[in-house]
Amino acid sequence: MKPKRLSYLLGLAALSLVLLLAACTPESRSSSGAPKAASGGNESTAEKVTIDFWTFWGSETRRPIIEKIIEDFNNSQDRITVKHTYLPFGDIWTKNLASIAAGNPADVIINDYADVNLRASKNQNTDLSEYLSKDDIEKQFYPELWKNVLYEDKAYALPFNTDTRLLYYNKAAFREAGLDPKQPPQTWKQLEEYAQKLDKKNGSTYERVGFYPLWGDFGVDSWLINGDGGNGYFGENDQLAFDTPGKISTLEWLKSWQDRLGRQTVDAMKADFGSGVSDPFISGKVAMYIQTGTYNTQIEEFGKDLEIGVAPIPEREEGSGHWSSGGGFVVEIPKGAKHPDEAWEFMKYLTGVDAQKYWALKNFDNVANIEAAEDPEANKNAVYKASVENLADTKVFQVPLSASGYKDLINPHTDAVFLGKETPEQALQGAEKDVQALMAKSK
Amino acid sequence: MKTTAETLKPGASGPQKKKRSRLARREELQGYLFILPWLIGLFGITLFPMLFSLYGSFTNYDVTSRMDFIGLGNYARMFRDDPLFWKSLYNTLFYVALMVPLTTIGSVLLALMLNERIAGMRVFRTIYYLPAVLSGVGVYFLWIQLLNPSTGLINTMLGWVGIPGPAWLSDPMWTKPAIIMMKLWSVGGGMLLYLASLQGVPSQLYESAKLDGASAFRRFWHITLPMISPVIFFDVVTSFIGGFQIFQEGYVMTDSGSGGPMGSLLFYNLYMWNQAFKLFDMGYAMAMAWVLFAIVLVLTLINLRMSKRWVYYEGGED
Question: Are residues A148 and A188 in the same domain?
Fold first, then answer.
């Protein structure tokens, strides 16, 4: 039939046109991109260069802080202007990926610690060794953080901020239960004793739970680090360390907390937790709670009358170590950015003492620059001071590339323990087996 | 354009075919010219990316550093070595298998009830349709509250009749049923279609059946159901396809898109998304997309086949 054939031909014509256009794109991109970059280099001495800086800091608290830092940088010299682009947390990294693929990325971006190596292996960020050989700033950062910006011994990002987890406790509740508010629990055993004293029951329902290890911001992974001498899932040379005696008994210990309270209580109470005034610690439903250092700003905002203390995470037994876990964000130059030299200048400023000090002071967020972190002014704040001290016991882990995505394999096993479907030993063995299979395949 | 017209000639002057007038051909061509922008859209924005992803599914494409041909590697890995692929497929099939019949039956029943002629019916219709207007993340957060094991409305109501409700979103056995329940709540969209078609059923059919002494159930079974079967068919096919696309529920209603307790809400598209945008394994994700496409295609074809047995079109076939 005629109409069919005509549509077929027209379609074919349109398709070939599209394919032609698509085939042309990379070429036209590189041909127009190359001279631009070259001229950018020439201009930089004479003309001002504008660079684009992507962050996800758009909140009322954080946006003014980062924009003040940018403004200070812009005023400190007359060669580079930094433009701030805010993108929501859920979008920023997919957008980054798309813009790198399109050859038109930001010049500087805030990104996650956990995957610096993955991004480096995929050509998504820029090797900074050349810049570092000129400006040797490695020593200004915490070594634990620096470790995580390396891929094949080369740095692909600079650490910006970090976090660490602490035990917050309610001093009024301590007094009520006959505990000394100056003596927070030091060991797991004490933690259990204190928790039982702090429990407050009304009939069969809990008005207050002394402590439950998995509420708050310290998950199973973090407890396994704490209970296994500060060792994570992956050891030297990506050796797997899942079903170690330390981890198995830690998981058993975590399960015993659920057994004590009952799964129903744990599920039901957790479902009620919110943020702000309905935060379980701020509303007094929980007497001891593990959270990051910046959680204190929430307490100050929503729980003004709360009298709190902070302490390191209790250790398994005396001398085993108050291990905590951390994360945070880095600054990096997406691959293919037009102005890497200028981007580097700005990154140096962002991670330098002045900017980092300002960030710490305004946010009480842990910063990566040691000198800035230990600045006396911010350290007047007791919680901030405790969090800086806690960094010495804080572990930040890089995931081996071949194990990317391993958490999706571990979580079902650890969930199964708390549902009574697997024993801790089975779960950790099963997780190790699954992750091993994953790593074997991707090698 | 002349060239295309010329290339047409051999086909047009085929044997035993009526020659069309110049005018008719011209008009035809003009017609295609008018729709050309949409054709370009279809080919450029739909077909080209599809073909690209088909090719990509045979590579180790990661968007930024490589795109090497690896043959059936992605497909082999999926079927042989990836337990999470099977889990996500199972979760999705479980959801679709329950959600499609339940929402279909639910919306037909609702439409039947709302088709009664009683006072204030408009108000009821509006109320039952309302959930279909609300959408997205707001609804999920509302349901997270409704499903709260101790203070949520659902368990409170179950408590009135002496049933201790489960921890809906933390017990892997109940997570998917909870989401299906949420879908049942917003059957208003389908209900509207059924309502419209119910009102199109000629009343003389019911009258003559009544004269013959048919019971209410028989009238429903032999008149109503066949008459609205084309709409049921349409609804089933579209909710089948929509069901396989489930993503947001798993992403929003679990901690940071982790797939929920024991991975029980790790739906196919969520896992695919994680592979593509968290692990940058785009080639693998593309292969997953094509497998899903094949599954949906086969199921839709089966649906179409089966429809001949139970869908009644007024005016007969052809």
Answer: no
